[in-house]
Amino acid sequence: xxxxxxxxxxxxxxxxxxxxxxxxxxxxxxxxxxxxxxxxxxxxxxxxxxxxxxxxxxxxxxxxxxxxxxxxxxxxxxxxxxxxxxxxxxxxxxxxxxxxxxxxxxxxxxxxxxxxxxxxxxxxxxxxxxxxxxxxxxxxxxxxxxxxxxxxxxxxxxxxxxxxxxxxxxxxxxxxxxxxxxxxxxxxxxxxxxxxxxxxxxxxxxxxxxxxxxxxxxxxxxxxxxxxxxxxxxxxxxxxxxxxxxxxxxxxxxxxxxxxxxxxxxxxxxxxxxxxxxxxxxxxxxxxxxxxxxxxxxxxxxxxxxxxxxxxxxxxxxxxxxxxxxxxxxxxxxxxxxxxxxxxxxxxxxxxxxxxxxxxxxxxxxxxxxxxxxxxxxxxxxxxxxxxxxxxxxxxxxxxxxxxxxxxxxxxxxxxxxxxxxxxxxxxxxxxxxxxxxxxxxxxxxxxxxxxxxxxxxxxxxxxxxxxxxxxxxxxxxxxxxxxxxxxxxxxxxxxxxxxxxxxxxxxxxxxxxxxxxx
Length: 519
What we know:
Distance between the termini: 15 Å
Number of strands: 28
Structural class: alpha/beta
């Protein structure tokens, strides 16, 4: 959505997934820019996320290690906690719980007694973190390979998003820990260095209490060891979530940021890495750039080509729930010279739409196909009429493929003459502010009764106390999102842009990656 400020940093914050009916999937998501660090051709020098400053530690620096819950954002100068929901200093023990096939996150925090400019203070460095296997009293094991560590990258905010926000450094991107690290963050030596711990309880894990240790080392020597106890419930979450998740990772934005061709092998591999991370956390792309068919218009005739092996991977191995394709993809739009909605224009578009549906039908995937409207967030009579024209084209050229728009199904209160989308649109993704309308829940029920799917999204103008993805918003905002989804009986969520980086020179240093006209 054009008015939505979803910064790179916001997109990398942790998102608790997701309640749906009677099941709560607490899977914790860490989205996604950090993946580039572990890919050699893109390098870690560019980000500075793991830069330890290459300075020696001071002998008189006090250092402590503690733990914090996942639902908390640890800032550079937060006080050391002796006890909280997951941590007791007296026992040096971290206690968490979860079901099989669930990600159970928490944080380990290294705190020192120094902070300031790296020109004035020496940054303690050489830290690393390790984990043992987790063993139950019955001898069952959760292998240490199921535990991953991520260093939380601090980014400077120069403005606040709400009355409860603040300027200064905030945790943002999560960088996989592959090498020792120090207390340098951005251009500052910080007191706290939070580490995101992602513990996956394998599916089918036997019920019981599993215990092991996490050890923080410095210069290769053990510094602090903490006990980790995981209470595993007597059930496992399913591999598939019933929640629809449209998460936009743009291949074109990746190509632009790394100054590579969108068709290059490097960008294809990187895009696939991002998508694989989405799927491993029960999420899917909004527009799946890897599944966009090739299009060629010759003499008014449309020829499509599909990468069938890739489709088999996504549809059969990854079990993709929805393939959202543009009703007018860019590679088709650029080849049409006819006037929009003229007979020639409509014939070409209908040929494209019908061929896509035919391919999905041939392989029995038709129930997973959705076409997206070319008109984003219609907000004028002209755009309402254009959206209805696109809905008509989809319905006339397919046998019921859903057509999705980013708008509420409630007619505009101040402009009733614009009419409705009923009969033209099947699926809606609703702006969060529109959920406050008294008619919305009733209309959602009606649209679902007609067989439509409804998702929702958060925009920058969705203000406090409503939840948002802003970096300085409370971490619990992210936990509220799935509960709101369930409360309104909607089918899922949409996230406009995880990697909108074209308006910043470096998203690791600049949190304002989208220059919205409303700011």
